[in-house]
Amino acid sequence: MLRPARQPTEPAQMTLETLTAPRISTVASPSQKSNEWTAAQARALFELPFADLIFRAQTVHRAHFDANEVQMSTLLSIKTGGCPEDCGYCSQSSKFDTGLKATKLMALQEVIQAAAAAKAGGASRFCMGAAWREPKDRDIDVLCDMIREVKAQGLETCMTLGMLTERQAKRLAEAGLEYYNHNIDTGPEYYEKIVTTRTMQDRLDTLSHVRDAGMAVCCGGIVGMGETNDDRISMLVTLANLPKHPESVPINALMQVKGTPLGTSTPIEGFDFVRTVATARIMMPTSVVRLSAGREHMSEELQALCFLAGANSIFIGPKLLTTANPAKEKDDALWSKLGIRPMDV
User: Fold this and answer.
1) Largest CA distance in the chain
2) Residues in Cβ contact with 163 at an 8 Å cutoff, skipping those fewer than 6 apart
3) Which of the residues are catalytic?
4) In angstroms, rounded to a whole number, what is the distance separating the alpha carbons of residues 198 and 154?
5) Residue 150: left (phi > 0), alpha (psi -120 to 50), or beta?
6) Cys-Cys link to 71, which of 3, 285, 298, 313 (CB 3.0-4.6 A)?
């Protein structure tokens, strides 16, 4: 027996304004300034029907960004390996046998050359990472020189060096460092299963020093480390409830490294990854959401869904610190198919 046709619940005439305007629904959506997300509110978003979640994320995205622009960054390891931390995902920990050879801090001229190559390749931001628990005060002078030289090439500057003291953060800011990356990695409830050599509060303290020094915050996490969707939601709630949303939110898919405790973890399911990106976009509407590590193992279709869900930043270049990243030719072909262009800074 045929059922009566379902009656439309919205007007038949839809204008461009009604399609692109932010929509209010029964799912709680606190303002960016309030930063009062609860786990229940975030879970309600995450578990929306997929089409509704993507529509809402894309609507929020278009209210704040050009939907076809993606910010391009390059990441360089300026000091590789030998880190005393026990982060279970990391190839650079001295506690795991990953076959990675530790190196000293890179020479200034090498960093200058790498920055020039990154700019020529289309990057607008140059990120420098060192495998330290925290930098020594004696390292700060040369790090400040690196910042000044990279800025002189017209690139935005970013560093990730581990934990910072208040004084170190101020010195880096005075040298012109614009962004500091310091991820919380995962939700507070799962954190101790990933790392025991520093606490979540240690990470939050560094973020506070970075903010107080006047730098922008780049802070996100890693998924696919054996955590549940509730852990991913908890991570997003922690980020969204910071005193100010991070200007950049990297969502990393674990790159499995042989020899690390998480080297055999089950990868995150694709739709759950997209849901994580979409939920981040809605909860932190003006943050740049970075589709970060893991793109090397993602299909073009999965990446496209992530951009549709509100991701608008990536790393370009052959390597992310020590793991592989898509080749330029592969990325260029995808940008052409999707009509993506680099974001101006």
Assistant:
1) 80
2) 133, 134, 182, 198, 202, 203, 205, 206
3) 83, 87, 90, 127, 158, 218, 290
4) 35
5) alpha
6) 313
CA distances to 185, 242, 275, 289, 293 from 44, in Å: 22, 20, 12, 20, 27
Q: With helix as H, strand as E and coil as C, how does the chain read?
A: CCCCCCCCCCCCCCCHHHHHCCCCCCCCCCCCCCCCCCHHHHHHHHCCCHHHHHHHHHHHHHHHCCCCEEEEEEEEEEECCCECCCCCCCCCECCCCCCCCCCCCCCHHHHHHHHHHHHHCCCCEEEEEECCCCCCHHHHHHHHHHHHHHHHCCCEEEEECCCCCHHHHHHHHHCCCCEEECCCECCCCCHHHCCCCCCHHHHHHHHHHHHHCCCEEECCEEECCCCCHHHHHHHHHHHHCCCCCCCEEEEEECCCCCCCCCCCCCCCCHHHHHHHHHHHHHHCCCCEEEECCCHHHCCHHHHHHHHHCCCCEEECCCEECCEECCCHHHHHHHHHHHCCEECCC
Question: What's 262-301 look like in SS3?
Answer: CCCCCCCCHHHHHHHHHHHHHHCCCCEEEECCCHHHCCHH
Distance CA 43, CA 48 (A): 9
Query: Locate tokens 């920990």: which residue?
Result: 93
pTM of the model: 0.85
Q: For the chain, what's the residue count?
A: 345
Return the residue matching tokens 């390891």. 77
pLDDT along the chain (345 residues), means of 10: 35 36 43 73 97 97 95 88 80 74 89 91 89 90 96 93 95 96 95 92 96 96 94 97 95 85 85 97 96 85 96 78 71 91 79
